[in-house]
Amino acid sequence: xxxxxxxxxxxxxxxxxxxxxxxxxxxxxxxxxxxxxxxxxxxxxxxxxxxxxxxxxxxxxxxxxxxxxxxxxxxxxxxxxxxxxxxxxxxxxxxxxxxxxxxxxxxxxxxxxxxxxxxxxxxxxxxxxxxxxxxxxxxxxxxxxxxxxxxxxxxxxxxxxxxxxxxxxxxxxxxxxxxxxxxxxxxxxxxxxxxxxxxxxxxxxxxxxxxxxxxxxxxxxxxxxxxxxx
Amino acid sequence: xxxxxxxxxxxxxxxxxxxxxxxxxxxxxxxxxxxxxxxxxxxxxxxxxxxxxxxxxxxxxxxxxxxxxxxxxxxxxxxxxxxxxxxxxxxxxxxxxxxxxxxxxxxxxxxxxxxxxxxxxxxxxxxxxxxxxxxxxxxxxxxxxxxxxxxxxxxxxxxxxxxxxxxxxxxxxxxxxxxxxxxxxxxxxxx
Lengths: 230, 191
What we know:
The complex is a heterodimer of chains A (230) and B (191). Chain A is built from 10 helices and 2 strands. Chain A has a two-stranded antiparallel sheet. Chain A is globular and about 80 Å long. Chain A starts with 6 loop residues before the first helix and ends with a helix. With 191 residues, chain B is α+β, with helices and mostly antiparallel strands. A 5-stranded antiparallel sheet of chain B has the order 1-2-3-4-5. At the A-B interface, helix 4 of A face helix 1 of B.
């Protein structure tokens, strides 16, 4: 087993190195749909972070209790509970945000970042590490959402957080408010992330499922050969 | 032998019974938590919705109308009508909804003046497709209804259906008709 990463490393992983949206390409549905306004994007990011941290903590605390056979249904029930909590609280206390998030709030249940982190991290790590991971991933998600929505709102609507910054007489590029604009910004940001990686000369290990499988086959072969030699 | 049997029984318990118990326990705890939270938030949500509805009535009623002027009517039986208010000045506002595109409701707030003509109309088309069905909420469509007092509305009377937004337009016609029905049969007749 690889050496245990430090708490700081766990926390900062989600911000750039393993940014959930730009690096792991998880949760793109909400990232593309909600980023037309900064306020909506930040609200979504905060709701998402809350659910992510809470579900990571609970799943990690129960990791030894939940049998492998029913782990997915258990995770979904826990995640859905926290999403419903957020929904009820927002509907009661921040109805405007609740309206602007619409169906995407309920869709946090099936957001792959949360289930992904539960499967990849929380079910194998301690409560503190899982909470830090959730916080880091959530922060990465909020930062990405804020960046994306800032670009889209400024170019598409001429404003930032509802404050007008581009004069009225300059035409808006309304394509930014629709799906193609979202994809365009998403692609540019992903490219920017790769550029940054090259510039800093810290390449990130990229493994596809195929690579992982080949590695496993190689390791098995080596073991077999080792056994024969002995 | 006895040991073997106990081990088998234990593994059967772990394989079959334990997962069920854990899942049921988690579900129960989660439901209990949500029930408690629902008890706390439900009254606030109802209050919010009521305030929002009242604000929508005020937005279509003539300027200067206040919450104190309005009398809320309950027990309305016209299908599609969700609520109505009348003012001391003889004006009335009706909230009605009808199914639009993809089975989602289009809600309208129709204000009538004392003579029974439509004095204002606001359409909430947020459930409809942005840029297509949502056009029924725009002023150049809704303003066509103003001053109408000729009975049920339909495409062409007083406004035409919006091209490519037939379902959403028809929903507005149906909801406005429900509001007119309610006004003539229940509010005008009853009050």
